[in-house]
Amino acid sequence: xxxxxxxxxxxxxxxxxxxxxxxxxxxxxxxxxxxxxxxxxxxxxxxxxxxxxxxxxxxxxxxxxxxxxxxxxxxxxxxxxxxxxxxxxxxxx
Length: 93
Known about the structure:
74% of the residues lie in helices and 0% in strands. By secondary structure, it is an all-alpha fold.
């Protein structure tokens, strides 16, 4: 059996968490900018559903949304990364 088949690739949870967290935080900032620049197409009503405590638009609320977006990235990384690592290990046993 080849070395790759004995030890399947594993996802590094910390790298995945940081990258997904930053991806969602950057996306959040871009969406806020979009809403400010094009208010006729604003989608900030949706933020109230996905980001608990978010109110349009105060500095504290902006920071809360940024933190929650980053946390959602970590949630996805922890759940998906652990499941991926588990099932790649089980498949090769």
